[in-house]
Amino acid sequence: KEKHKILHQLLQNSTSPVDL
Amino acid sequence: QDSQLGPNNVSMGELDRIAQNIIKSHLETCQYTTEELQQLAWQTHSYEEVKMYQSKPRDALWQQCAIQITHAIQYVVEFAKRISGFMELCQNDQILLLKSGCLEVVLVRMCRAFNPLNNTVLFEGKYGGMQMFKALGCDDLVSAVFDFAKSLCSLQLTEEEIALFSAAVLISTDRPWLMEPRKVQKLQEKIYFALQHIMQKNHMDEDALAKLISRIPTLSALCTLHTEELQAFQQLHPETVNVLFPPLYKELFNP
Fold this sequence. Notes:
- The structure holds 2 protein chains of 2 kinds.
- Chain A is mostly helical.
- Chain A is 40% helix and 0% strand.
- Chain A is elongated, with a radius of gyration of 10 Å.
- Chain B is mainly alpha-helical.
- Chain B has 12 helices and 3 strands.
- Chain B has helices spanning 12-28, 34-40, 47-54, 58-82, 91-110, 139-153, 159-170, 181-202, 208-213, 216-236, 238-244, 247-253; strands at 114-115, 120-123, 126-128.
- In chain B, a hairpin with a 2-residue loop joins β2 and β3.
- In chain B, α1 (12-28) crosses α7 (159-170).
- The radius of gyration of chain B is 19 Å and the shape is globular.
- Chain A binds chain B through residues 1, 3-8, 10-11, 15, 17, 20, and chain B through 28-29, 74-75, 77-78, 81, 87, 91, 94-95, 98-99, 247-248, 251-252.
């Protein structure tokens, strides 16, 4: 988890096409 | 359709639902729509602009490319999240599949933004040829990426096929250290059946799917080459990588 902190965060975030 | 069985006893209705979900996820998470790309297709960087890219210091152009790749990867992560079944995989496997497959998906998606008629690719708002990336100092990688894009374009894939192929590349049991390979395999098989179904419908050429699948080893070779070039660059410019490269890029590709 620590090693892939950002990827982990991106997976957890709820985003919409607008956020992209 | 639900009672009609396709390969491996998966109902045709389920294959259709999988296909529709993946196509929707792809279209929602592409950086440019098909229409936008068509409008841009003949807007090329001028001679002066190409010269400007060519005269950049090597580390500056590497940084620019790392930023563009990282941006594209964020869209791929979003694509993965929207594929039904991906978020049901264990966290280890989600991260592993993305870490090993995201650049491959970026390269597949790149064929949408590649003009095979003049061998140019969309970079920072306009199209440009291979010579634009001369300052990177890795002609082999750049030329291999352009060759790959051209060869993928020659298959004349539809958006639906690009979507399903991207998902098939991402959700792959070939990645080492998967914790639940059976779960990944089940999802992958369904995606392949959906891809097969769509390709049979769209292409007269019976070998179209086989031709497409035969491009996968090249994708993997390109990613290995990218890692090697990055390592070589990092040895010469450790500060650029450590300080100026996007953190996500470093997290994904740093040895």
